[in-house]
Amino acid sequence: MDAIFALTAAHIASDAEVPPTWLLQEALRYHTTAVAALQDAVETPDLEAAFIASILTMATAVVLPLLRGESAMHCLLHIHNFLKGVWTIIDLNPERFCQSPCRSMLGQTVTQECTASEDDIVALHRLRELKKAWAAGNPMYDAIIDELELGFTFNTKRAISWVGKVGQESID
After folding, report:
1. Is residue 75 domain-shared with residue 130, that is, in the same domain?
2. In the chain, how many domains are there?
3. Which of 106, 126, 160 is the last residue of a domain?
4. Is the dihedral of CA 163, 160, 89, 8 positive or negative?
5. What is the structure's pLDDT at 170?
6. Do 16 and 38 reside in the same domain of the chain?
7. How far apart are CA 12 and CA 29, in angstroms?
8. Which of 52, 65, 77, 169 is paired with 161 by a 20 to 30 Å CA distance?
9. Which domain does 151 fall in, by range?
10. pLDDT per residue over 100-136, tens digit each?
11. How many CB atoms lie within 10 A of CB 147?
12. Is 53 exposed, middle or buried, given 0-12, 13-18 or 19+ CB atoms closer than 10 A?
C-alpha cells in the first residue's frame, strides 16, 4: 500500500504548477517505507505483490526527482538500480514468475512474435555497423545491442527489461 500511496501522492503533485512541498514529502515518506518493506520481502510468498510494488517504487523513484527539478538523466539512472531489484524478485522463483499474470509486463510471453518495424530493423543494423566502426572488439556493446534487439524484434515490453539487463558497466 505504501508503494501505491507514494505513486499517488507523486501523481497528484505532478498536476500542480508548483508541487506542494508537503505533498512531495509525503510521497517521499511513503516511498521510503515501501522500499524498506521490499528489502524485507525477499522471502515473501506473494511474488506478484512484491513485483508490482517494485514496479511502483521504481516509477516513484523516477518521478519524484523530476518534480523537485532534477534532470531527466539523473532520473533515468535510477531506473537501472530499481530494475535490478525487480529482476532480483523474479530470480527468487523464475518458474513461478513465468506462470504468473505479471510475466507479460517484462516481455516474458509464451509466444515470441516479431514486432519490429522495417525501420527498427534498419536502425538495429545501423547500430551494429556503428559498433564495428567505433567499438570493435568490445563484447560489452555486443551484449547491449543483443538485448536491445530482443526488445525490438520479439516483444516491445522487453525494452523495459533491457535497461536492467545491460549491467552497471554499460550504465557507467
Report:
1. no
2. 2
3. 106
4. positive
5. 66
6. yes
7. 15
8. 65
9. 118-171
10. 777 666 555 444 555 667 887 788 888 888 888 877 7
11. 19
12. buried
In this structure, what is the dihedral angle of CA atoms 78, 102, 167, 152, given to the nearest 10 degrees? -100
Distance in angstroms between the alpha carbons of the first and the last residue of the chain? 33
How far is C-alpha 31 from the geometric centre of its chain's CA atoms? 16
Measured in degrees and rounded to the nearest 5, phi and psi for residue 25 equal -65, -40
Q: Which residue type does 40 have?
A: D
**Contact indicator for 164, 86 with CB cutoff of 8 Å:** yes
User: Do 88 and 135 share a structural domain?
Assistant: no
Could you tell me the three cell numbers for 12?
497528484
Alpha-carbon distances of 112 from 104, 153, 155, 156, rounded to whole Å = 11, 9, 7, 11
Cell numbers 559498433 correspond to 131
Q: What tens digit of pLDDT does each residue of 25-74 get?
A: 999 999 999 988 887 766 666 777 888 888 888 889 888 888 888 877 77
Question: How many alpha carbons fall within 13 Å on the CB side of residue 51?
Answer: 21
DSSP code string of 141-161: HHHHHHHHHHHHHT-TTHHHH
Contact 158, 151 (CB under 8 A): yes
Count CB-CB contacts under 10 A for residue 149. Answer: 19
Q: Is residue 112 part of a domain?
A: no
